[in-house]
């Protein structure tokens, strides 16, 4: 499907999606730098998933040596495979790990080596920040582009070229809605993390994400397609 995301009218963002990559505590690889020196196996959850596109991008752009073991249905099965020793690492959302795997965090059973949003979450270690390797400037740009996508992954949007007055009405209504979000019973659970953003700011994020040098974009496409 071909379309220009910059031509859509964005109403607002409800939440971001921060995925993390973790290694089991017995794995030899315990950081991204380790992953450049040694091969490590990761559970994959499908060619289009974050669990597979991010490692492919990192392998192509900054020289990591992630070995994807694909075929796991979802992150829960991937994490179980890591716990069983079938693979050394896996990926999931930080919200799911923080809520569902508290024992792992408390007992230090996992080491988080990467997060997929560009701003570091205070709960996560500095080593997990993406796109910080100055030795690979094109790699930095490619990783940052992918991470920017995570910032506006969950959106309210309408068709392109909507009338200006309608756009304003929708954006104002969205802002009014998020201002009272704390009163939503369904959003008071600890595993529901809202991070709303106005439509105009989302639009700027989309434009910045798309403004990637052609050479970086081509290498990223090659990594995502596994060379085909």
Describe this structure in words.
- With about 230 residues, the chain is α+β, with helices and mostly antiparallel strands.
- It folds into two domains: about 5-15 and about 155-210, no CATH class; about 20-150, 3-Layer(aba) Sandwich (D-Maltodextrin-Binding Protein, domain 2), CATH 3.40.190.10.
- The protein is about 40% helix and about 15% strand.
- It contains nine helices and eight strands.
- The chain has helices at about 30-35, 50-60, 75-85, 95-100, 100-105, 135-150, 165-180, 200-210, 215-225; strands at about 10-15, 20-25, 40-45, 65-70, 90-95, 110-115, 155-160, 195-200.
- The strands form three sheets. It has a three-stranded antiparallel beta sheet.
- Strand 3 (about 40-45), helix 2 and strand 4 (about 65-70) form a beta-alpha-beta unit.
- Helix 2 (about 50-60) packs across helix 9 (about 215-225) and helix 6 runs antiparallel to helix 8.
- The radius of gyration is 19 Å and the shape is globular.
- The relative contact order is 0.21.
- Mean pLDDT is about 80; it is low at about 150-155.
- Profile the largest sheet: 3 strands, antiparallel
* Span of the ends, CA to CA: 18 Å
Question: What structural category characterises the helix and strand content?
Answer: alpha+beta
Radius of gyration: 19 Å
Named at the architecture level, the CATH assignment of the largest domain is 3-Layer(aba) Sandwich
Task: Let me know the average pLDDT.
Answer: 80
Low-pLDDT sequence parts: 150-154
Number of helices: 9
The percent range for strand residues is 15-25%
CATH homologous superfamily heading of the largest domain: Periplasmic binding protein-like II
CATH topology type of the largest domain: D-Maltodextrin-Binding Protein, domain 2
């Amino acid at each position: 499907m071909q379309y220009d995301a910059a031509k859509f009218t964005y109403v607002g963002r409800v939440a971001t999606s921060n995925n993390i990559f973790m290694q089991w505590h017995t794995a030899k690889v315990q950081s991204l730098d380790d992953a450049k020196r040694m091969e490590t196996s990761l559970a994959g959850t499908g060619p289009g998933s974050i669990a597979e596109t991010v490692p492919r991008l990192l392998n192509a752009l900054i020289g990591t040596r992630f070995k994807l073991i694909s075929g796991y249905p979802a992150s829960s099965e991937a994490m179980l495979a890591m716990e069983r020793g079938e693979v050394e690492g896996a990926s999931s959302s930080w919200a799911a790990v923080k809520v569902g795997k508290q024992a792992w965090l408390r007992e230090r059973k996992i080491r988080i080596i990467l997060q997929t949003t560009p701003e570091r979450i205070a709960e996560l270690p500095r080593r997990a920040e993406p796109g910080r390797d100055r030795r690979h400037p094109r790699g930095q740009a490619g990783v940052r582009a992918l991470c920017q996508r995570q910032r506006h992954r969950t959106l309210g949007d309408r068709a392109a070229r909507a009338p200006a007055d309608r756009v304003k009405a929708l954006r104002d209504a969205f802002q009014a809605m998020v201002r009272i979000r704390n009163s939503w019973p369904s959003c008071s659970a600890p595993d529901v993390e809202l991070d709303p953003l106005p439509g105009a700011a989302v639009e700027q994020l989309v434009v910045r994400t798309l403004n990637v040098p052609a050479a970086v974009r081509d290498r990223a496409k090659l990594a995502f397609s596994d060379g085909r």
